[in-house]
Design brief:
Blueprint: H1 3-31, H2 34-73, H3 91-107, H4 112-125, H5 128-145
Amino acid sequence: MTVKAGALLMAALLALYLALVGWRAVQFVATGEPVAVAMGVALIVLPIIAAWALWRELSFGIRSQALVKRLEAEGGLDLELPLLPSGRPDRAAAGAEFGRFKAEAEAEPESWRAWLRLGLAYDAAGDRRRARQAVRQAIQLDRASR
């Protein structure tokens, strides 16, 4: 199963779960009892938050994938990092080369390409939190340039 298919399957399962929880929330509220109504309201609010989070993650995935495809089409996707036999970048080498990508992003702070490459370098080095921040910055810069 591909990563995209797995993400879509998980999104569909979460949507089903949200629908079932939403139905249960309506049933709780319909009883009219104060404790059940409070539980029903909580069960309505929590799925709304979950749906927002699901949308945010799917949107991030779609937009970041589109930027990666654009960068690949332009020939800028190759980070020139040594690869392991599995095809993944070597984390130690990515960490050693990280300064180059950071310097590119600092030299061109308005370039979504530089920020995306920085995000990919963070990811290759194993720092997922900073990778997501850099890719979010690339997405914002791309949106602003359109």
